[in-house]
Amino acid sequence: WSLRQSWESFKLSYYNEYKSYLRLKMSLPLKTMLLVFTAVLGGFLFGYDTGVMSGALVELGDEKKDWDLTDWKKELIVSSAIWACAVGAAISGVLNNFFGRKVTMMAGGSVLTVASFIMAVAPNWGILTLGRALDGIAIGFVSMTGPLYIAEQVPSDWRGPLTVCNQLMITIGILCGSIIAGLFEPVTDGWRWMLGLSCIPSTIMTIMFIIMPKSARWLYFKGQKEEAKRVLIMIRGTSDVTQELDEIALDYERMNENEAIGGRGFQRIVNMMKNKAVRRALILGMNLQLFQQLSGINSVMYYAGTILQMAGAGSNKAIWLASIVSVVNVLFTFIGLFGVERLGRKILLFGSMIVMMVGLTFLGVAFIFIDNSSKDVATSTAGLIPNSGCNYANCYDCVQDDDCKICPQPSNSDSWICFNSSIYKSDSDLDQICHDGESQNYCKTNVGPWAVVGLVIYIMGFAPGMGPLPWTINSETFPNWARDTAMSITTCTNWICNGIISMTFLQLSGAAGPSGAFFTYCAITFIGLIYFFIFLPETKGLSLEHTEKLFDSSLTFIGLRNKKEVVASKEK
Known about the structure:
Strand content: under 5%
Shape: globular
Strand order of the largest sheet: 1-2
Structural class: mainly alpha
Largest sheet: 2 strands, antiparallel
Oligomer: single chain
């Protein structure tokens, strides 16, 4: 009886919903499906850039000793793309307005191709950083414009699911980037291939957009109504598009009304600050993006390979283990897609943050044990060449120094020595102090696998909740007249905090140890959990009008009250 009841419950929810999904999919014109595939390549490129950088950074540290890659240089190479993304996203707003979505996506694809070539042939870390910055600007173009293009071109019944597909393609791109990094790790200068191969999907996207139509909505707003109608007829596969044109016309009128209410540019921001509901929603939205990033997600995504190398994995093994994190990220994103309407925003967010704190605590404790279980190493090089600063008696302490490595001594392969690898560069030099000239920048330990478990638990928590929910909640908490500007401000907050984390992780790990870094992220996540418990209202099932009333309520701690109670207090 219990099994039968479970099956009936499944049919009423997921099974029947999936049948409706299939019927809708079969009715979607092929041209529209091709249009969506082309647009979500931008999301794939965003994810690929994130996933491949983790492996490329490990390779750069191993192969490019002559570049003298200190922690801050590595952080600059990583974060330059992130800071540039913020600039690209801002510029894309202007490009989208004047030239349209199609031209902006083509510009992004073209710049991505050029940036990929620059990174692949970079002769020094400065040129590589320049390539990363160009790559970031282009990612800013496509990451902002792709979802917008999809939302404006697909039928309203498909708008939600297909816009979410962009987020799914980001996670798939991260996974593909991790796999490519693993495949090219054994290749000499494999990092050049890792970073350069992104030119393939970027070139495909650029060429395909040549034959893609412009946004019908953008055309209509620019006064090209007949061209907008022609585009709709082409992508819908029917000449009956009158109702959709009427909806676009209504949106155009609303846009003009919004400009009349909120003003333009800086005046709109001033009016947003004067409006209590918008001001409270904006502060909440910025904090959602702030805590999403300061919980350390991009230290995990960009530096996963480096973290696993710290935990005792060799370069190749660390890169492949990082791909496990990417697989978990993809799989658990689906939980968020199905759970956001069934569980509600608050429950899913709180559960997500609690699991993240468990994962971060697990990582912190694991690195304490890794440090304590690290073997002793010798510091004398028998007077062959001065050791210059690598006088560490502990393996873990030795390899945390960028200039230092360990290796077995020629006279006794069971005895290991810490030495300055920036001095011993040639094979003949290494043969003097290392058994078979073999050296490594990691310490083998039995505790290392627990770091993998900690990373997996952390991503299991982040992917379904703290990953997508800040975007979901922000999309439904602002009135029409303020939504575009508010979303731009919250997105900018995300990029800035992303850059801060990416620019400081290695230095924080060097100063406080990896365990100190993860405990710091855990503490920040806990503060965020308390903040959202007090100030985040549940918006599940509410209209935009009722959502606005939530934030315009006279109650201060709206997160502690029932949403009906908050709305009722406003109506009174």
